[in-house]
Specification:
Blueprint lengths: L4 H9 L3 E10 L7 E8 L5 H17 L4 H18 L3 H15 L8 H7 L2 H11 L18
Antiparallel strand pairs: 1-2
Length: about 150
């Protein structure tokens, strides 16, 4: 979203993109899967500039720990999203079913807040180092037809 590190860096600070976002669990999240990062190139900038800026942010995650304030903001959003999803009978039923199928026990739903609370900046950095390696990456560029793709 607009408060994310990626959005702030590419859209607000560097202004090479009109939008930037990351999605985890693509196309699904039961089995090992993909993390999708994308950005929409701003007028006057190239897809190569956007790709370089994305790479810079991935490298930053690997080399610089996220601040405790930044992590707390993300944790707050994660907790709020989880709790909002449980605010109806249908939401609770869906979550229980989802956790049973994906994790092997519906009881894991009730551990989720503890797991979120336990995440540290070092955890983020370690996972970034394990995950964001060149051999794990596929880069796609969608170009429009015309004189200035």
């Amino acid at each position: 979203g607009r408060t994310s590190r990626l959005y702030k860096a590419l859209v607000v600070e560097k202004q090479v993109a009109l939008a930037a976002e990351g999605l985890n669990g693509y196309p699904g999240d039961k089995y090992p899967n993909l993390m999708l990062l994308y950005a929409l190139t701003a007028p006057g900038h190239t897809v190569e500039e956007v790709a370089a800026a994305l790479d810079t942010e991935l490298q930053r995650l690997k080399t610089e720990p996220v601040s405790q304030q930044e992590l707390e903001q993300v944790k707050t959003q994660a907790r709020a999203g989880l709790l909002r999803s449980l605010d109806s009978n249908m939401g609770m039923a869906f979550a229980l079913m989802e956790y049973e199928i994906k994790t092997g026990s519906w009881k894991n739903l009730f551990r989720e807040l503890e797991l979120i609370a336990a995440i540290t900046p070092a955890d983020i950095q370690r996972v970034a180092q394990e995950t964001f390696r060149p051999e794990n990456r596929t880069v796609g560029k969608l170009l429009s037809e015309g004189p200035n793709p």
